Here is the input.
Amino acid sequence: MLQLAIILPTLNERENIATLVERIDAALAGIGWEAIFVDDNSADGTAEEARRLAQADHRVRVIQRIGRRGLASAAIEGMCATAAPFVAVMDADHQHDPALLPAMLEAVQRGVCDVAVASRFVEGGNAQGLSSDRREAGSNLANRLARRMTGVELTDPMSGFFLIDTARLRALAPRLAGIGFKLLLDILAASKPPLRVREFPLQLAPRRAGASKLDRAVAFEFLVGLYERSFGRLIPVRFALFGTVGGAGVVVHFAVVALLFQLLGSGFALSQTAATLTAMTFNFWLNNFLTYRDRRLRGALNLLRGWAGFCATCAVGAFANIAAATYLQASGIHWALAVAAGILLGSVWNYALSSRFVWGRFG
Here is the structure.
């Protein structure tokens, strides 16, 4: 009888999954389980490897997502795709020990807690698998902020390894943002009244193969989660991020115009054109790294195609920007006000078209 589904979001984890299924099978002896690999169209054939395993073991399933990325959204999709009464989320890179699953399942089954969380910071656990002291310190800071937001006392609310009643998760799913890496934080913040949590010590192990899904933007990802939970219903997160990046691009734009027009004496039209191209390139890079990091373009060819697509989709906005600003400046409007008017005119077009035709297509 199926009791537990283990959801394993994957991105380029081909070398990890066969041995992980073996470890799960050994840990859950006597417990009905299934492993659902939710793969974001990995280039290394992770989905194909999962299908190969599924041919020999009906407990292995795979969801291959095309054109959608993100650990949290993958986990939600997998959790809603199972008939098991209980569901766990864990990494597929062997950093999370499946031997904890039986005790976590028993605690939730018996009603000891609503959510069982594997913690790196509770007594008996460790975070030595974290890649650096800076990352561990950042995780500690994020944990303190998360506890204030959720009202739940946990040593590790940023954990990516937890177990919950599936019906409870499905009830919460419409209120979850599905953004970023820290789904547990989203679940705890979305639940009213607060969920009862019990922690289990986790010895975080090094990755066995593949590259970490986390990078230098993980702290920013955490702030995105805080924003989504606080203001996301008023202004969509991605629009807010795009606007923030655009604001930084404005600074770049003004700086280039000031340098060329004010200091070097170049013509205003030439200065405005150079500033627009520079700001577009800057905005593309920062949006790719932050705003659309769940769809991030990687590799020289994809980046080049993405940059070209971004410039192409912004061409009309850029033309309107340059034309309007040049006209206003020639009409006697102060150059700074002319620049600001041109930027405002092109911004709406840039957001709408780049979302659809750059990161929607090439991502």
